UniProtKB/TrEMBL annotation:
<feature type="transmembrane region" description="Helical">
    <location>
        <begin position="55"/>
        <end position="73"/>
    </location>
</feature>
<feature type="transmembrane region" description="Helical">
    <location>
        <begin position="156"/>
        <end position="175"/>
    </location>
</feature>
<feature type="transmembrane region" description="Helical">
    <location>
        <begin position="122"/>
        <end position="144"/>
    </location>
</feature>
<protein>
    <submittedName>
        <fullName>Fused nickel transport protein NikMN</fullName>
    </submittedName>
</protein>
<dbReference type="InterPro" id="IPR002751">
    <property type="entry name" value="CbiM/NikMN"/>
</dbReference>
<keyword id="KW-0812">Transmembrane</keyword>
<keyword id="KW-1003">Cell membrane</keyword>
<dbReference type="GO" id="GO:0005886">
    <property type="term" value="C:plasma membrane"/>
</dbReference>
<feature type="transmembrane region" description="Helical">
    <location>
        <begin position="195"/>
        <end position="217"/>
    </location>
</feature>
<keyword id="KW-1133">Transmembrane helix</keyword>
<keyword id="KW-0472">Membrane</keyword>
<feature type="transmembrane region" description="Helical">
    <location>
        <begin position="85"/>
        <end position="110"/>
    </location>
</feature>
<dbReference type="Pfam" id="PF01891">
    <property type="entry name" value="CbiM"/>
</dbReference>
<dbReference type="GO" id="GO:0000041">
    <property type="term" value="P:transition metal ion transport"/>
</dbReference>
<keyword id="KW-0813">Transport</keyword>
<feature type="transmembrane region" description="Helical">
    <location>
        <begin position="20"/>
        <end position="43"/>
    </location>
</feature>
Length: 242
């Protein structure tokens, strides 16, 4: 995932310190806090005996998988964001909190992403990626999954959600850079690089998300938040045939 430093271009969506100026960093810090506070309030209705342990497993899995980079171009690699994956398995509100916890730990203990940029990183990867991924998943499931439910179709839904969530998160980065970019690269260069690389990274994100969601759905479809909530709205039993 792509990040820019004031003098060089490196790879990682975790924005480091100094990429955007202080006022914009502070603005997105406030946006991130407000968004997470809203998620805490809404997540209370989602958390039950199934969702709580699942949320812990999802956060731990995403933290571990984010340590693994996969190549997309010569000299360019990416790793899982996990927003769509978390949203499909535990819901968008709990999912956003899971991703935010991962980002905070990475920033404070592993210097993966700048502390002053933490609000922007949470806005992009925890809020935008998660909620865009979930909205795409709901729309795609209603379009192609519900009429003839299968694990394969659920995998397609997960792939599309992850791809769109990744590109949306990159778009958040571009918007923040347009508002207060402090690096030497032009906005056009940043936008082209972010959208180009993250369209490719989104494919890898989609494949990982699809495989993971399909594995959980085959073993315990009742643990997949998307299936549970869509079954409630359609009054269908939870489950997808193998």
């Amino acid at each position: 995932m792509s990040t820019l430093t004031p003098t060089t271009t490196t790879v990682a969506m975790h924005m480091s310190d100094g990429i955007i100026n202080a006022p914009v960093s502070a603005l997105f810090g406030v946006i991130a806090l407000a968004g997470l506070a809203f998620c805490v309030w809404r997540a209370r209705t989602d958390l039950d005996e199934k969702t709580v342990p699942m949320a812990g497993l999802v956060a731990a899995f995403i933290f571990a998988v984010q340590m693994i980079n996969f190549p997309i171009l010569p000299g360019v690699s990416g790793h899982l964001l996990g927003g769509a994956l978390a949203a499909i398995l535990v819901g968008p509100y709990t999912g956003a909190l899971c991703i935010a916890i991962v980002l905070v730990v990475q920033a404070l203990l592993f210097a993966d992403g700048g502390v002053t940029a933490l609000g922007a990183n949470i806005t992009n990867m925890a809020l935008i990626s998660t909620f865009v991924g979930y909205l795409v998943a709901v729309a795609a499931y209603r379009l192609i999954g519900r009429r003839s439910a299968s694990v394969g179709r659920l995998g397609v839904v997960a792939f599309l959600a992850a791809l769109c969530g990744t590109v949306a998160a990159a778009t958040g980065f571009v918007v923040e850079y347009a508002l207060g970019g402090a690096a030497a690269e032009s906005l056009g260069t940043v936008a082209a690089y972010m959208w180009g690389t993250h369209a490719l990274i989104g494919i890898g994100e989609g494949l990982i998300t699809a495989v993971t969601v399909m594995a959980v759905a085959r073993a315990r479809p009742d643990l997949v938040y998307l299936l549970r909530t869509q079954a409630r709205t359609s009054h269908d039993p939870i489950g997808v045939p193998a």
